[in-house]
Amino acid sequence: MKDRIFLNGMRFYGYHGVLSAENEIGQIFVVDVELTTDLTEAGKSDQVEDTINYAEVYADVKEIMEGEPKNLLEHLAALIANRINSHYNRVLETKVRITKEVPPIPGHYDGVGVEITRVNQND
């Protein structure tokens, strides 16, 4: 069974990027996380212990996004996926999407970013 828990539109101010302006001025990053898991037991028990606590996942993402600057969104996304997969053994797979809505590049767009999916190998 593949159920999903999602945290969409999390916004964090950070100093990530390859360009020096990004490291100095910073910008808002939008992060979406989707966790594939089995929610059967939580659906029966109504107990948070039988699911994945959204608040804890949010705190993990926040710590990474507001932490030490990184050059690449790919690296940030991998850090988030790896943290979630290593901390929550109920997670089967983690999808992370990070968007820069206003990167310092010319053009017209709604945002640029990356999306990765990592299978939890901690079985």
From TrEMBL:
Catalysed conversion reaction: 7,8-dihydroneopterin = 6-hydroxymethyl-7,8-dihydropterin + glycolaldehyde; 7,8-dihydroneopterin = 7,8-dihydromonapterin
Pfam families xref list: FolB
EC number(s) given by UniProt: 4.1.2.25
Dihydroneopterin aldolase/epimerase domain residues: 5-118
Cited InterPro entries: Dihydroneopterin_aldolase, FolB_dom, GTP-CH-I_C/QueF
Xref: Gene3D superfamilies: 3.30.1130.10
Pathway annotation: Cofactor biosynthesis; tetrahydrofolate biosynthesis; 2-amino-4-hydroxy-6-hydroxymethyl-7,8-dihydropteridine diphosphate from 7,8-dihydroneopterin triphosphate: step 3/4
CDD domains assigned to the protein according to its UniProt record, in alphabetical order: DHNA_DHNTPE
Keywords: Folate biosynthesis, Lyase
Similarity comment text for this entry: Belongs to the DHNA family.
Functional note: Catalyzes the conversion of 7,8-dihydroneopterin to 6-hydroxymethyl-7,8-dihydropterin. Can also catalyze the epimerization of carbon 2' of dihydroneopterin to dihydromonapterin.
Protein name (Swiss-Prot/TrEMBL): 7,8-dihydroneopterin aldolase
Organism: Staphylococcus simulans UMC-CNS-990
Source species taxonomy: Bacteria, Bacillati, Bacillota, Bacilli, Bacillales
